[in-house]
Fold AsmA protein.
Amino acid sequence: MEKVKKIILKILKWTGISIAAILFLMFIIPLLFPGTISQQVKLFANKHLAGKLDYKKTHLTFFRHFPSLTVSVDDLVLQGSRPFQNDTLLTAKEVSVGINLKNLIFNREVKIDEIYVTDANANVFVNSKGEANYNVYVSKPSGKTKDTTETGASIQLDLIKFKNWNIKYNDHSARVLVDAKGLNYTGKGGLSEDIFDLQTNLDINTVDFSLNRIYYAKQKTLHADLITRINTNALTFVLQKNELRINDLPLKFIGFISILKDGYNMDIKAASEKTTIREMISVLPPQYLDWAKDTKIEGNSDLYFHIKGRFSELKSSKPEVKVRLLVKNGSVSNGKAPVPMNHLNMDLNIDLPSLDTDQLAVNLKQLSFDLGPNNKFRASVKTKGLNEMQMDANIKGTVDLQTLDHALGLKDIDIRGLMDTDIKANGIFSLDKKLFPKTNGYLNLKNGLVKTKYYPNPIQNINLIANIINTDGTFGSLGVKLDPFSFDFEGNPVFVNADLQNFEDLLYKVRAKGVLNVGRIYKVFAKKGFDVSGLIMADLSLNGKQSYATKGQYSKLDNKGTLILKNIKATTEYLPQSFFIKEGNFQFENEKMWFRKFLATYGKSDFALNGYLLNTINYFIERKGTLHGKFNLNSNYILIDEFMALKNGDNTDKSIEVEYAKVENPKSSGVVIIPKNLDVSLEANAKKVEFKGLTLNHLKGNASVNKGEVYLKNTSFDIIGSRMNIDARYQDESPLTANYDVALKVQDFDVQRAYKEIDMVREMATAAKDVKGIVSLDYKLKGDFDKNMSPIYPSLEGGGTVNLRDVEVKNLKMLSAVGDNIGARAFDNPDMKGVNIETNIKNNLIHVDKFTFKVSVLRPSISGTTSFNGLLDLRVRVGLPPGGWIGFPVVVTGTHSQPKIKIFSKTGQGILDALYNQKSNKVIREERRAEKKSRRQQRKEKEAQENKAKNAEKQVSKDLKEK
């Protein structure tokens, strides 16, 4: 026993010593190597990260992620790659890297084999051009032999562990959004090898997924157990064991993903087989899940998904997606239901080649359910294409909506009525080719009612008898009858009768009468923000044929009646705010829809319209219809700035192009977007118009909107104390760019006031700050606006005349420098009264034609080139008395602020013009000094530039005349 005791004591002793030694080493090693590790990790970060990295504090310890020796940084912030270097890509409370202890002790090398990231937020972004913010890792150049003597840190990962991450992936080029919160991830494997198997465990508390702003998953939980073979040489991921659970729905998938230089290639098959309908329903949006908890749901379902192909924005290639959903022998019932929904069956197949909706194929082979003996619904629908859709549909059923409501256990809505339908359709639907499937069918609804929890009163007495027939597959034989469609809401009956025949040349008979409180209707369906107390009152009788209006046979039309709108809010996808129609009184008289009284506001702007629209029937019939009209427009105040597409406003239904442009350019205003389906002329009279701080008073003239372009003709307004006349054209190219032509004349304006109040004067005529007096202007220009609706000066082309009627020029640096060099102080105060200066503009250069003025007894003349950035290349001839017949040359180069003078010289230094790309709206090259050349070469270049500028001016005049 004594011997055993000694052995045990010896074991305990050495165990204690070993533990103490290990603990001692765990404390001492971080103290021995802090400089080595910190220095080499920083070296690695600076060498391999393109984004700016910042953090507060570093730690070297065994105890944060025992037993690994880890370097930890607190409160890390990593900026994105260009062009997102000012945006945050990643923030994390703690980032730790595990250090290989053997390499550290024996080789004094830092080998990173583990990564831990805790409490992180990642914002991954790809803009509309395909530029990404996550390209922050700079790999070693290929083709170089490895330098074994190189010092610093290296990565040979075996473990990645993320805890409590929030990740947002927003790809504007693919129109994909993934938003994951509460992500926990563990990845194990030989991550440093060229080919390795990665074992992954992933849990996400909530994840959202949308494509083209349509959410296919919202607030879903996700669990994944995956084994992925990764080939780092080819950047290929082969999915071997992949088990996924979305809420209660299990999903297995196999395949591969390869990352390419211009996109990716994939072939992934996913399936959820032999699951229940309840498990399938668990992936519905959250608002439906409470309903499912209290509802008895039985039956089986299967889901199959396959995506295959390449995605490349540059090559315009996209993968194909196939989906199949099967539901078998389903049953849905609620405790209050007299009968359950039985025999629920569905077989849905979707095929989307190249993610192209024009090739979309939908095959609903079967959708059926029973609600008792006389309540059965059966449908099969097969379509292919979108703009030209092949269709084969058979829909038949009689459904008591109240029984359906009870069977489903709907809580927030009460629906009633007997719906009976029988529709068969087979053929091609194409608006462009005016084809419609051969159809015979009807939809009847009797004694309908809709009531929700959001509003106390129902929409009731809903009756609809609709018949549709087409005998030969063309628009010519298409007929639709509504006889009637009627309902009551809060004591106000509304009814519509319509008989529509021959949609190739629509023969219509429509009668509509009633009062509709739009504000309360929207409250019934919990729609907020559309309007406050909007009211629509209609008493219309429309009777005629489409061709009567298009051929001018207006006497055959019999359109009459009134439509009154009050307090209606309306939005368009291209404007940031809502229009508020205070009152709109419309009267129909044959071909015209008269605006008898129309008062509206938009932000701070107000409008009163009086006039008429033509083609209103065609506009609502044809997809590409254009509204024609003529109006008188009166306004007290119009603020153009608030119409710019990217301005902040209450409109939440903007187009996806505007929405993405706003996200990618948060500090930009954008340009004003013009509707493409209007052809309207306006006699405009506005007391005050403001644009980017510039005030125009008493604007009067002719304005028109035609196919996305705005024209001003014979328009005048007061500006800087003078009356300006203007002809102009404006057209947007995108939410961020626009182009314009303008021809303007202004008599006798104050130069100093113009210089102080108009930005463009300060940019285009910097010398104006040294000029006082009265000037007249006759000028033509065309150019582009940038993303803040400011002129892009290198895009300007045109020219014109400036008349110095009564001016005083003092201490103009360029002239003073000439005077100083020739000993003539009178150049500080030259006499330029009545001088005409003709200039032409092209590629950021201003070409000045020769003009002569007086300086005491001298007769100097000036010609040459200057630029918007202040470069000078001018020729001055100083004419001597008597009459200036004899003179000597002077060359002025340098800049406006620092002119350089050469007397008795004709050899200046030319200016190479700027290069501007009209398609991308970018300056490719700014103007710069040319190499010194002979006078002959300079003369040729100058003549060529001046000819370009004069031709540009002529083209502006031609364009305005043609418009």
User: Anything to note?
Assistant: Residues 2-32 form the longest helix (31 residues). The chain has 14 helices and 48 strands. The chain has a mean pLDDT of 83. Residues 265-390 form one domain.
